[in-house]
Write a structure and sequence with these properties.
The chain is α/β, with parallel strands linked by helices. It has eight helices and 17 strands.
Length: 345
Amino acid sequence: MSASPTEAIVIIGSGPAAWTAAIYAARANLNPVVFEGEPVGTEIPGGQLMLTTDIENFPGFPEGISGPALMDRMKAQAVHHGTRVVSALVTSVDLSQRPFVLTPNYSAPVTAHTVIVATGAAAKWIGLDNELRLAKIGGGVSACAVCDGAAPYFRGKRLAVVGGGDTAMEEALYLTKFASEVFVIHRKDKFRASKVMADRVMTHPKIRIEWNTVVTDVLGDDPITALALEDTVTGASRELEVGGLFVAIGHTPNTAFLGGQLELTPFNYIKTAPWRTVTSIEGVFAAGDAIDDYYRQAITSAGTGCMAALEAERWLAHHGIGESPMLDNAVAPVMIADADAASVA
């Protein structure tokens, strides 16, 4: 094990939640370390916003800002205040001992008094080569209509949504505000979404349902121009001209590396106490899309990153670790004891 001093706080992740937590922790003189990860498939440091070309709903940017630019600015702000950044994945953690032990993929283990898990969630993709390529370069393929659908690029175009759950219904309805026509492509003859959401989609004048249909290819060099479709009943193939594709078949929270040590929801998101970021283990906090299967927005992730840093700082202060409180009004530290941890269960 590394002989390095134990860190007061280690943040795992590199999206809005992680960088916001780092900013708050750094300004509290906690000298945080952020393990920002490294590229793995469509997952790259910066999270899902790295696949978002234009963000128009993050406060403070009236003209909009690209996802990569926003992440660069957040990271730069965290570094400016003293955050140390390690470009490596944390492959495993040992939360059974104190201080906690985190093992990166290329270097010696690191010990920490507190940990903030802000590893996000990975969008599920169809898995087609050109789909993933266009998603990476901002070529009209996205996994979040609420994030990207209002961008000028998509306005007035024929757009497609793949999926059959409530998320797909919400995405399709949202896109009707901007698209000339919305196609919902579903591999079965019945949605798995709630009846009220399915009814809204099926009765909307701008939405057309493509039942028993799968996407076999995404066409276009840059941007997308059409979809290659196949009928799951007859096997017939055809093309559908579209100006954008939104894949809404779910997300997978990046929590496997925890090895089951934190209590998770039935969908493998980290379970936290209501309106808190405390987890089932005292001294471990979680933020961002790793805990959120409902909002999944950059601004809500940033908010929970702030919350996690405040809770971690107060925990450290209560245990006599760390230098200064974050809040100017010197709120008394909140003791995150066994009762709080139990409330997560």
